[in-house]
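Question:
When you can, review this sequence-structure pair and walk me through the tokens.
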Amino acid sequence: MEGLLDFVLRDILTRCGGIDRCVSEFIRVTNTQLPERVFERIVPELLMGGRTFAGVPVRPQLLGSDPQCLADNAGVLASMGPFGVDLNFGCPAKVVNRHGGGAALLEDPELLTRIMGAVRRAVPTHMPVSAKMRLGLHDDRRAEECALALQEGGADELVVHARTKADAYRPPAYWERIADIRAVVRIPVIANGEIWNVADALRCRQLSGCTDLMLGRGMVTDPGLALAIGGVQGASGTPADDAPRIAWTALLPLVADFWQLVCSRLDRKKQCGRLKQWLNFLRQRYPEAATAYLELRTLNEPLLVDQWLAQQLAGLPMLTAPA
């Protein structure tokens, strides 16, 4: 999730618990061999044994369309000790698809096999190579064919976002189509798409047949979602209620930690925007975040945000942002 779920937010969300593994935002590969410093900039966890601060493994993701170039870059990346390499066949962005990357590759299953095969040969056999795909580009008629093509190329694991590129992020997600894919492949399949709460997770498991789920925007919106899902035993379990698993009073210090990381790693002009971006997601689940978003919406001076957060942590009333 380029521009959102970067290493800063990965750090904070994995501190919340319930997450077994992360996949990085995509690393775009065109016709060049990227230097190690590029991989380290996008996935700085590589400098910490491949794990987040909380100890959760991170699998870097590559995006491109040239088999040999992807293989060359995957080989360098593998030498840096990640917990596997992931390939992106699902990005719906127009600029990516226009250049033959992401979901556009789902129109050419034979190329999927060649890309996966080249990367698999370039990465040590003990290191997993996984792929994330959508159901298709314009429609889902070739979903099973694409999954089989990736398996033939040597994929160890497949994540399926249960929508086509044409569906974008519009609900619903067609989780039952993941079950169709599971029926024809022999490798593990992970379900993804439109999982916002525990009830969604249970229904996704029921319709897809998958035990493992990948969370995206739902986890950004509710950082305790993975914990809540993990607390429900079995696909037939029911959530006790729909309240966020992590209370705002416990989340606020993590918001402050997020802000400190943003200030230490991002350009000053981008800092306030990143905090407001996350609060905009959080306000879908937390009334307090909605209030915070309104308080900070017009602030673009990091020092004022520092002061606001200090008062929140001290339990003082919220300030009113200047007009």
Residues 7-230 form a domain with the TIM Barrel fold (CATH 3.20.20.70). The radius of gyration is 20 Å. Residues 319-323 have pLDDT under 50 and may be disordered.
